[in-house]
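Late entry, evening session. Most of the bench is empty. Finally got around to the prediction I had been postponing all week. Sequence below, unchanged from the version circulated by S.P.
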Amino acid sequence: MPCIMGIDSGLTVTKAVIFDADGTVLAIARRRVPQLIPAPQHVERDMDGLWAATADAIREAVAACGRPASDIVAIAATAHGDGIYLLDDDKRPLGNAIVSLDTRADAIADAWNESEIGAQSLTLTGQKPHASAPSAILRWIRDHEPERYARIAHFIAAKDWLRFCLCGTIGTDRTEASTSFTNVLTQDYADDAFRLFGLDRLAGRQPPMAGSTEIVGGVTVETARQTGLVAGTPVMAGLHDVTASALGMGGYGEGVVAVIAGTYSINETVSPVPKVDGRWFCRNGILPGEWNNMSISPASTANYDWFIDQFCSADAKAAEATGESIHAILGKEFEAARERPSSAFFHPYLFGSPFGGASSAGFYGLNAWHDRGDLVRAVLEGIAFNHRVHVDALRDCFAPTSARLTGGISRNPAMAGLFADILGLPVTATRTEEAAAWGAALCASAGAGLFASPTDDPRDLASIETTYQPDPGRQKAYDEKYRAFLDLAGAMKPLWPVLRRLGAKN
């Protein structure tokens, strides 16, 4: 039986996963990829380091899968979306990549959105500019690093860099191409978009666009030597990781909202026509004539990870030493805290929010009788409340009747129930191992002719998923808390810029 490789490179970990044609995982290998923070708001990564880590992961997965490398009939990559990866005329990295947690361009995006450029961008490209959009980052480079800007020969995304390292061709796919510079109606590049953002020099330099299932090259001899893959193995164009995650968990389609609780709060649904609104990105779907409507903010599980790192590190080490999990310990504290009233709230805005570039995180309503369980509860509820901000926006136009949940936080069964209560929707948690990598593998499989379409998932999804219905009593209580959550955000809006200025003072 043939097998397929899906590569998934997130903001902290890059993974190579080999699947059997029926979706069974044969091997997984992971490598951490360090983030570089050379200045406040600057979040970068070394591009050669990313490839070296990914190549190591591929080699380990190939060696561990128990099948010859020649059984791998196709490869596709997905990776964090937005941000920018630059190459010079020699096709070498032009400095570090700027990843999607970077907010150096937030003032540029805010200024555009306060002017007519924001409205024009929404009409033309289907989305308003934001700090991690390629348009805003490239404009920042133009204004602050003109020598670097003048040397840009190619600008691509994270998974496109991995594709180049695999097969030596430069390009992108339909989903990634629509992050800044495509016409939302035609789904093709628009020179007007480059002019709108003051990036005229880059018009015509955009990466060629292919379908996610299209073969864009074969593994090079050098890459085969590095990874253990067979030279010539077909490489497909792949897709943006937001779309890949929805596809991999069976949530890519109309009538359902895919909720991905990862580093970002990602909430998306597919439509057969473009529907434009400032609260979401209307981007290209996998196939022509499909649009993926994404309501997103960098405000989800990364806040929970931060809480553990900052306030639970000793307990985490002690738990690890005894074979226990800090997540299990906090899970018990969370469940106990849910059984009592609490005024504690948390805005999960360590890296950004739906409410503007100056927002920041905060605990509210704390009293001396609150314990760590109340704080954990506030963090997890705050994450789910922020997802509801986005889901409510999509419900205004698309009326999804159910949600599907994935992301690291979804592995805790209590979280799917919490999301059901807060969203007021049936929430299905699918036991999909490596959803984004499987989404990439589905595209690779379709390109290799194993399936007619990337949505032809061969797995019996009913056997690997559980649906949680909202509890009427808890849903009513959470509706009240959600209104308070929004009121707190409204009250903080004029104060967030003040806090940002105080934090910037020497």
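Two things to note before I forget:
The CA atoms of residues 166 and 374 lie 47 Å apart.
The two ends are 62 Å apart (CA to CA).
Will write this up properly tomorrow.
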